[in-house]
Write a structure and sequence with these properties.
The chain is 41% helix and 18% strand. It has 343 residues and is α/β, with parallel strands linked by helices. Bound molecules: pyridoxal-5'-phosphate. Pyridoxal-5'-phosphate (PLP) binds next to helix 3.
Length: 343
Amino acid sequence: MPPIDLRSDTVTKPSPAMREAMLSAPVGDDVIDVDPTVVALQERISHMLGKESAIFMPSGTMTNQIALRVHCSPGDEFLCETGCHIYNYEQGAFAQLSGLVARTITGDKALLDVADLEGTVRPDNEHSVRTKLLCIENTHNRGAGKIYTLERTLALCGWAHSAGLITHMDGARLFNAAVASGTSVREFSERFDSVSVCFSKGLGAPVGSCLVGSKAFIAKARRARKLFGGGMRQVGILAAGALYALEHNIDRLAVDHAHARLLAETIQQCKGLRLADGLPDTNIVIFHVDKELGTAASFNESLNKSGVLAMAFGPQSIRFVTHLDVDREQILQACQIIRSLTS
Ligand SMILES: *Cc1c(COP(=O)(O)O)cnc(C)c1O
């Protein structure tokens, strides 16, 4: 029996229908001029998010880092939540590649509020870096897939703009936030100057992210993409997978959310396990393992041996992520395995 792979929503494989769409995509040289399938994807996503323009890139790391690079200059600082992807999982590329400083602020249950940000904009003098931008991650990965509600993001953007800051959203899982909350991706994006979304997470495409924003901003991002080595030629083959995902795999994210809830409810009932942040908002479940049961690494190994793959997320914490390649039957089986390891 193949293992039930809950390590990440990036482990999904393109379905036969998605591969078919990729195989038959019209293509062109997207660096010399344009690739028609890439253009179709960029138009579709900019329309969905309510922005003027969009650009396709190989990864969410690149869309995030190019957003920072274009919005900011060396010696600028941006504000972000302590657990965010941009700060923790991108090798500090903003410092290595763009000369930027990050100021991390710890939110309540990993989410920032306006009150957390008061007083963080530095005075304009020659001793200080210049506070330039606020970055919000929706949903928040290390925050167990928690959603920033529309109300909260509006307040944060309102605060940032009135403080003269630019706003960027790392929306790698923005579609999960939209499906779970009923707020559209367009509403969520409206007040942000730029937004990054990933097609290779819950949407199930093999590769790719888009960065969206104003025409002038995207023109600069295109230059930076070439600089970072992200100019790709007949890349419509990949964009076709992303287009297929947008057409077929958004609404079904609700299934992944229901599956995450089943796992979380099981964990709640197991002695020695405790949810990090209550029941999940979306498709990520993070839980603590009591020392009596061992470490996260040893408990994870027991899970693996029983056929469930997970990710140790800290010395005593483990992450499950649900996705379109795991069905309900496998989730129920995983629940059974978790129960058997804790009773
Ligand atoms: C996955 C992810 C990214 C981008 O990751 P890549 O692997 O570079 O595509 C950015 N932000 C968050 C929150 C993510 O989960």
